[in-house]
Amino acid sequence: MQELSTNRKWTEMNIVETRDLSKCYVFDSGLRVEALKDINVKIEEGEFVSFMGPSGSGKSTLLNIVGCLDQPSSGRVFIEGNEVDYRNSPAIVRLHRQTIGFVFQAFNLIPAMDALENVCYPMHFNGVGRSRQKQRASELLNLVGLEDRMCHLPSELSGGEQQRVAIARALANSPRIILADEPTGNLDSGTGRKITDLMKNINREQNISFIVTTHDPEMARAADKVLKLNDGTIII
């Protein structure tokens, strides 16, 4: 596994901040569910932060709003000091292409593409040339310890290997933030520890902010900060 060089320097700033963030779902039956209530969070550049809580606590909703996959009912979200305008679709697309990378519990790899092609895929939308895509993808797969598995389809990889490909894919466009929803949830404990160590190493070596939802105590122990949620609020 090799280190990938980075020119980023540490600066003291909140890379993510939420102010009085709330999310309410209203169903056709008239039922209202308050998923989040007045959430105020500050995450510094380079921090590794875990959102923990039981199912239904609001941690995935909070992650999705920070990742601009969902929008709040009220409140404000700031990324790199800039307020997110959820109505501005081009700006949201730019955030997804340039600033935020995603890692999912179910890996979400494209079945018909091998590992190298899966990592190349996000770069295509940023106009990266094919040769540079392959070079970058090869470097990232080497970084996550899969230099000998680049030509394998997802179906030919173990769960841990698929998650390593997913992490490499999330890094493809050099994001400043990685959001991971239960990244070890589909893995056995030993493989989960390896994925936790990998993510923490990338966080430390490249100063990329990681925000994860998890039930995994190992992942929580790796975090610089743990925010516990219950019934849509942060428990102090």
**What's the overall average pLDDT, rounded?**
93
What is the rounded distance between the termini? 39 Å
Strand content: 25-35%
Q: How many individual domains? A: 1
Main sheet properties = 6 strands, mixed
The dominant shape is globular
Protein name: ABC transporter, ATP-binding protein
Keywords: ATP-binding, Nucleotide-binding, Transport
Organism: Methanosarcina mazei S-6
Pfam families: ABC_tran (PF00005)
List the helices and strands and how they pair.
Elements: E1 14-26, E2 32-44, E3 48-52, H1 59-66, E4 74-79, E5 82-83, H2 89-99, E6 100-104, H3 115-124, H4 130-143, H5 159-170, E7 177-181, H6 189-206, E8 209-214, H7 217-222, E9 225-230, E10 233-235
Parallel strand pairs: 3-8, 3-9, 6-7, 7-8
Antiparallel strand pairs: 1-2, 1-4, 4-5, 9-10
Explain what this protein looks like in three dimensions.
α3 packs parallel to α5 (159-170). This protein is 33% helix and 27% strand. It is of the alpha/beta class and 236 residues long. Strands 6-7-8-3-9-10 form a 6-stranded mixed beta sheet, sandwiched between helices. Strands 2-1-4-5 form a 4-stranded antiparallel beta sheet, covered by helices on one side. The chain has a single domain, classed as Rossmann fold (3-Layer(aba) Sandwich), CATH 3.40.50.300. The chain starts with 13 loop residues before the first strand and ends with a strand. The chain has helices at 59-66, 89-99, 115-124, 130-143, 159-170, 189-206, 217-222, and strands spanning 14-26, 32-44, 48-52, 74-79, 82-83, 100-104, 177-181, 209-214, 225-230, 233-235.
